[in-house]
Amino acid sequence: MSQHVSKVLRATLVALTATAVAGTAVVPAVAATAPGADKAHAATQEALNGLVAADMPGVAAEARTPKGTWSGSAGYADTATKRKRTAADHFRAGSITKSFVATVLLQLEAEGKLSLDDSLESRLPGVVKGNGYDAGKITIRQLLNHTSGVHDMVYTPEWDKEMNGPGFFEHRYDIKTPEQIVAMGIKYGPDFEPGKGWRYSNTNFVLGGMIIEKVTGKPYAREVERRIVKPLGLKETTFPGTDPKLPAPHPVGYSKLYVPNPGPEIHDATEYRPSWSGATGEVVSTSGDLNRFYSALLQGKLLPKKQLDAMLTTVETGEHYTYGLGIISRKLSCGVQVYGHDGVVWGSLSGSAGTRDGKHMLTFNINGDWLNESPPFENMFEGEFCGAIAKSEKKLAPRAELGPVNH
Fold first, then answer.
1. Could you report the per-residue pLDDT of 16-51, keeping only the tens digit for each?
2. Which parts pass through the membrane (predicted)?
3. Shortest CA distance to 294 belongs to which of 239, 370, 356?
4. What residues does each domain of the chain span?
5. Catalytic residue at 350?
6. Rounded distance, CA 37 to CA 246, Å?
7. What is the pLDDT of residues 87-120, one digit of tens each?
8. DSSP E strands, 233-327
9. What is 37-386's CATH number?
């Protein structure tokens, strides 16, 4: 679910302890790692090392450039056995799911089956009502760029009770329907009038998934597989639904369970039923598959120009990034603009981004979920796309959106 943590990604980094419990053209594969690639990606490797130095258990990354691919890692997939992270690891990519969902909705618009300016009420009659909501004034576009005002189900007492802290172990194998998840969010009034503000809300994309099913007659995940996963040959990308397990190889997902003021205790949160996330954060993938997806997307292989331009038209967020339709845009210190998404779920923190031409991509995954968004995280992008990492102690604004299913 993303990509910004239950009460905001934690600003305090606590050392790891032994408490850890246990219809488009196919994109061709990139050539193997080119000579000199290790030197070219030295700053990226330094950033990987820095994440582990900041007390994360392990991290792996893969970069894709016209010269070939490069992969690097630091730390462990399993701190007990000392098994190392690799770029082949499968991981829960959280809110990176949002880019897939937005792409399908934009494809449906290109096919004339809906418009971004359709109201939520016209597509899902009666689903969002009461508590101050007027679904007739909320558009699909506002759902996709988080200007709808619909309250985030992650920021509710019910979510905290059932999926954070001790509640995670009691409820992680529960099955939730999209309707139940939406009801959890809209029990609380809107954050602002539609179009009058910005706030990251996972509920927006659960509704987006419901719209896909209403329009196509098929679950959102099946449409993503038919329209994106299979045409691009993303063989390591799945939407597991109610299956709590991860395909091999995969790291242990270490979590502090998003409790306020967490202590040193770290838990194994690898398994849970991702119906809790659904269209806001269900996808399981690898760094290679996600690089291929975003590369194809940015190169216009999944969307016509009109829809791709709409996706990449961003709004201000008050954070250090702007937000399009299911996509995050960062302007890095060297002036390079990159597009992609982050993902945070229990035991997993991921980032994926690439240049506007889709020729230079980076995806990485940390098998821990308590890192704050400060230079150790952003250094992955700075290192890969700018060739340098921050040395200062400056802090970036914490991710306003993050709950365990966000950004």
1. 222 333 333 322 233 334 445 678 999 999 999 999
2. none
3. 356
4. 37-386
5. no
6. 31
7. 999 999 999 999 999 999 999 999 999 999 999 9
8. 254-255, 267-268, 284-285, 315-316, 322-323
9. 3.40.710.10
